[in-house]
Specification:
single chain, 459 residues, alpha/beta, Rossmann fold, UDP-N-acetylmuramoyl-L-alanine:D-glutamate ligase, 3 domains, six-stranded mixed β-sheet, 16 helices, 22% strand, UDP-N-acetylmuramate--alanine ligase
Length: 459
């Protein structure tokens, strides 16, 4: 049983190319460990440049064939997606190498620092990135372990989802989808929102209630009807809709002018080069958590004025022939609707494309996808979908994205299904005129970044 980071020197990550795994791998490498790992995407040649960037950090990468695990390996790290049938899990057991889940290892890391854990259904990666910038600007030299790359770090040639600072503070994403959020005991717990995603609402409320109990200080979004039920102290909470007077952090005056949003927090003006009201909410959440760490709203405003964003979160690829192309990680109903709405102030018409991921989650959220996406579309807007992304493993393919499109169309919305996404541009091109925003949405599929760039380049 691994109970301390002090006993680990040579960890091996199975699935190291994944966003959550690569972040922890880089963090541990940055603290002086000798990290190695494998990924099935290395076998298939689908890892993009992640392997090169991991190796540039000093992480030794192997094919997923068992060759990377030796008698010198003192820990094997797996995610919930790694099944016991994987050859490396079998080899680790044969060699009696301890096996730990990614979330358990992250809990050990969090226990070694003054940690701010960012929880909630939507906005975790963006808020984590904003918090990192704020604490960095404040001179606290923080560390971060995120589910997505910060553009400011990506520009330096890194994956961008981890950074080892010399200060006491660590900012992490606390994931509720696998229940691992209950393992953390942070200095500051931040709850952004609670919506149906992965689990039923009753179960989510129980999980987030434990997160609250485990946090020394706790701040919640009082504007979210479910999150506000878990308030520990309203003075520490934040409000973004003016309907929660007791909250100590209040946002007012939201405006979006093109690709710039502005608002005030407790009278302090903020301006950011980013899209959408939901990103104001993320910024307010980050400011509230930073305040509990002793950082003023004025310092937060100064940091966020230069915030460069998160990989594939409302990432503007550019404008061509009068069409703006935006790449976004949106993958649940609320996120898809928010992404669509964020593009509407900058475009006469939004043409949105979405690739759902996972047959089970798509079936679980079918009604919510239809209702949220249909509700976000204006009469002139359009939604297109391609078939559900299958990442492998055991599942029942008992639903198609075409069924969601049929239901959205039955509500009087403009909706089309293109099974093979490689045919999308040919089908959609006549629908794109000057003044249109083309929004490309999807998650988990590592080829989506290149797909979006290809669409933009071929416009």
């Amino acid at each position: 049983m691994i109970t301390s980071l002090e006993t680990i020197r040579r960890p091996f990550f199975i699935g190291v190319a994944g966003a959550g795994m690569s972040a922890i791998a880089q963090y541990l490498q940055g603290t002086g460990m000798q990290v190695s790992g494998s990924d099935r995407f290395f076998n298939e040649g689908k890892a993009g440049d992640i392997k090169t960037k991991l190796e540039a950090e000093g992480i030794h990468c192997f094919l997923q064939d068992g060759s990377g695990i030796t008698a010198d390996t003192d820990l094997v790290v797996v995610s919930t997606a790694i099944e016991d049938t994987v050859v490396e899990v079998k080899k680790a057991k044969e060699l009696n190498v301890p096996i730990i889940r990614r979330s358990e290892l992250l809990a050990l890391i969090a226990a070694s620092k003054k940690t701010i854990a960012v929880g909630g259904t939507s906005g975790k990666s963006t808020t984590t990135g904003m918090l990192f910038d704020i604490l960095y600007q404040a001179g606290l030299q923080p560390s971060v372990i995120s589910g997505a790359g910060l553009v400011s770090l990506i520009k330096k040639g890194r994956i961008g989802n981890a950074f080892v600072g010399v200060g006491d503070w660590l900012i992490i994403e606390a994931d509720e989808s696998d229940g691992s959020i209950v393992q953390y005991h942070p200095e500051i717990g931040l709850l952004l929102n609670i919506e149906k995603d992965h689990k039923e609402m009753e179960e989510l409320l129980k999980v987030f209630a434990i997160f609250k109990q485990n946090s020394k200080l706790f701040t919640v979004n009082q504007s979210n009807e479910h999150a506000r039920q878990l308030s520990a102290n309203a003075v520490n909470d934040f409000c973004t809709n003016g309907a929660c007077a007791a909250a100590g952090i209040q946002a007012t005056g939201f405006k979006q002018d093109g690709f710039v949003i502005s608002f005030s927090i407790n009278g302090q003006p903020f301006q950011m080069n980013i899209l959408g009201r939901h990103n104001m909410e993320n910024a307010v959440a980050a400011t509230a958590a930073a305040a509990l760490a002793g950082v003023s709203p004025a310092t937060a405003a100064g940091a966020l004025k230069h915030y460069e964003g998160i990989y594939r979160r409302a990432q503007i690829l550019g404008e061509k022939n009068g069409v703006w192309v935006i790449d976004d990680f949106a993958h649940n109903p609320v996120k898809c609707a928010a992404a669509i709405r964020s593009c509407q102030p900058v475009a006469d018409k939004v043409v949105a494309w979405f690739q759902p991921h996972g047959y089970t989650p798509t079936k679980f959220l079918r009604k919510e996808f239809v209702a949220e996406i249909a509700g976000a579309l204006r009469p002139q807007d359009e939604i297109w979908m391609s078939e559900i992304f299958y990442a492998g493993g055991t599942t029942t393919k008992d639903i198609s994205a075409a069924e969601l499109i049929d239901e959205i169309r039955s509500l009087g919305k403009n909706a089309w299904f293109v099974e093979d996404r490689n045919q999308l541009l040919g089908k959609i091109k006549s629908h794109l005129q000057p003044g249109t925003a083309l929004l490309l949405m999807g998650a988990r599929d590592p080829s989506l970044e290149q797909f979006s760039k290809d669409i933009y380049n071929q416009l």
